[in-house]
Amino acid sequence: MENKKELTKDLLTLSFRELILKIPFDKITIKMITDGAGVIRPTFYKHFQDKYGILEYILQKEIREKIDVLIENHLENDIFLLLCSCLSKDRAFYKKLYLIEGPNSFEEQMFQFIYELIFFLFNKYPLKAPSRLKILTKESLARFYTFGLADSIKYAITHDVAYEPKELAEVYDYLIHNSVLDLVEYPAQGN
After folding, report:
1. pLDDT over threshold 70, residue 177
2. 3-state secondary structure the chain
3. pLDDT (tens digit, 9 = 90+) per residue, 151-170?
């Protein structure tokens, strides 16, 4: 039964994927999605609340589950490489998803996912922040890095910036593992 449910969700998602490459998100109807999947409209609502539910499912199946495997196997150093690779591999599709606006947009879902990922890493591994920076919480640091990473990834995808996933991942791995503040040499007080 569970396999049939997954298969139906995958068929609906495939139909949506084909449509979004040709039609703007706001013009895609549930009927168009179900017609493409060869199912009736009520079937869609057994699996998804709305079109935004498909975005959640895509993020879950195509990115989150793959990254969870890395985390379960303590391979966190490869997380951002995998994230960049997933998005880069199907760039035209993700570009269309990033154009969707609204409170449950792909961009918002991706931001939340990246925040949770970075916050997880900050909780799993100790921070190297100097004692005078104790006012910065893990939450504020995670938000700081999330804004940079999420926006940079979106920019690279939506503006067709040529990059190798490995290059982008190495930059962000470096920035996350080495606080920006650790890169700056402050002059001695009183000079």
Report:
1. no
2. CHHHHHHHHHHHHHHHHHHHCCCCHHHCCHHHHHHHHCCCHHHHHHHCCCHHHHHHHHHHHHHHHHHHHHHHCCCHHHHHHHHHHHHHHCHHHHHHHHCCCCCCCHHHHHHHHHHHHHHHHHHHCCCCCCHHHCCCCHHHHHHHHHHHHHHHHHHHHHCCCCCCHHHHHHHHHHHHHCCHHHHCCCCCCCC
3. 988 998 999 888 788 887 77
